[in-house]
Amino acid sequence: MKGAHFLLSLAVLALATSIASAYDPSPLQDFCVAVDDPNKALFVNGKFCRDPKLAKAEDFFTSGLNIPGNTDNPVGSNVTTVNVDKIPGLNTLGISLVRIDYAPYGENPPHIHPRGSEILVVVEGTLYVGFVTSNQKDGKNRLFTKVLNKGDVFVFPIGLIHFQFNPGHTPAVAFAGLSSQNAGVITIANAVFGSDPPINPDVLTRAFQVDKNIIDYLQKQFWYDNN
């Protein structure tokens, strides 16, 4: 009898383990609408794989990250992305890289990466960086900030609002690795005030608890994308 209970316990444990490990893969895009007609289908969760026999060194290579990005724009920064679109060999590896250039007093505005955490290293200049947690039990969103100098490293957890600002008189440069071949980016101001079509102003007026004229003004601005 004890043997039967032992075998039943093992079976339940095995089933629980199977259920716990059998989850859907993380998406690599914002959404993927199901379609029955294969002629209207597009494979986007990753990319099609080349026959390994046909792979070559160039599939795992790119260049140009030594070239500064153009920071002559409203936010004073430029993000040069190296993802699976630049290096086909990154497909399925779950990593990507960016170079970020900052003009004096330039910033990479508050944004999130919905599909990847980020680890950033400063190679030139000084940066004031930070991220905000999700809602805590006390109803607050905690802010973590740090001033980084050359050689310093900072981590931004997946999906959390974060930013970088150059408080110096000289340009700054940073490189960052992301834990996705396509981490995505949502710049908060652009998404909220520059969506197409615009979000109903009544929604934003209540959400931000400001006069509707302020929302109307913000929605009429040009929201620059530095990526």
UniProtKB/TrEMBL annotation:
Pfam families for the chain: Cupin_1
Protein name: Germin-like protein
Signal peptide extent: 1-22
Keywords, sorted A to Z: Apoplast, Disulfide bond, Glycoprotein, Manganese, Metal-binding, Secreted, Signal
Binding site for oxalate: 108, 113, 118
Cupin type-1 domain: residues covered: 63-216
Entry binding sites for Mn(2+): 111, 113, 118, 162
Native organism taxonomy: Eukaryota, Viridiplantae, Streptophyta, Embryophyta, Tracheophyta
Homology family: Belongs to the germin family.
Annotated localization: Secreted, Extracellular space, Apoplast
Sample GO molecular function, one term: manganese ion binding
